[in-house]
Write a structure and sequence with these properties.
Low-confidence stretches: 87-92
Number of strands: 8
Mean pLDDT: 88
Strand content: 15-25%
Radius of gyration: 17 Å
Number of helices: 7
CATH class: Alpha Beta
Number of domains: 1
CATH architecture: 3-Layer(aba) Sandwich
Largest sheet: 8 strands, mixed
CATH topology: Aminopeptidase
Order of helices and strands: EEHHHEEHHEHEHEE
Helix content: 40-55%
CATH superfamily: Gcn5-related N-acetyltransferase (GNAT)
Length: 210
């Protein structure tokens, strides 16, 4: 049985597992269809939708195997986290993870070198103390503004508050910066690469229990 968490704002959420990978990847592809990184990573508009479907399927499988992922019951929203002190993947996962990473890298083609450099520069802006990194937060386009994002964030953010841990993320839209600011995050760094999306790195210190 999937692990559940107390409903946040009346919205029940559950911990996602490998069986959710296909549906999760498809939802992520729809959610990020208009994201600035999507058109930068996959500039060919004719094939972008199919590329995003494959890209997010691979990334969903990687994050489900290495992180902690929470979603709504119908997978209309999900938060995918990595611990900054993450445990090593189980040996049974290593071969599959390597294949996923190699396939994702191959998809980027000539974008791979610049994407790797930008990722490294963004990573240097991340906090170094133990905590949790929000790798992906996504909600179906037609379900946004209904509190689903806050609900799927809640299990890990509440644990951060309970254990005194920070949470951090990076995002590429001012709209998302405002969304996260309303949830206790603050901007701690910015990166504006040439001919690539602008990145904001944000951090949320633990909040004292009410």
């Amino acid at each position: 049985m999937a692990e559940a968490a107390p409903a946040h704002g009346g919205i029940p959420v559950r911990r996602l597992g490998e069986a959710d990978a296909g549906a999760l990847g498809a939802m992520l592809a729809r959610a990020f269809a208009d994201d600035p990184t999507s058109s930068w990573l996959f500039p060919r508009s004719a094939s972008r939708a199919q590329s995003l479907l494959r890209w997010y399927d691979l990334n969903a499988r990687i994050l489900l195997a290495t992180g902690e992922c929470w979603g709504t019951e119908d997978l209309s929203s999900a938060a995918l986290w990595l611990s900054t002190g993450a445990e090593r993947p189980r040996p049974s996962h290593l071969g599959r993870l390597l294949r996923c990473h190699l396939a994702a890298a191959a998809m980027l083609g000539t974008r791979l070198p610049s994407a790797a450099v930008i990722q490294a520069r963004v990573h240097r802006l991340h906090p170094r103390e133990p905590g949790w990194y929000l790798a992906v937060l996504a909600t179906e386009p037609g379900r946004q503004g209904q509190g689903l994002g806050s609900a799927v964030l809640a299990p890990v953010l509440e644990r951060c508050d309970r254990l005194g841990l920070q949470a951090h993320l990076d995002t590429v839209t001012e709209r998302d910066v405002r969304f996260y600011q309303r949830r206790g995050f603050r901007v701690i760094g910015e990166l504006s690469p040439a001919r690539a999306p602008r990145f904001w790195v944000m951090m949320r210190p633990p909040e004292a229990p009410a």
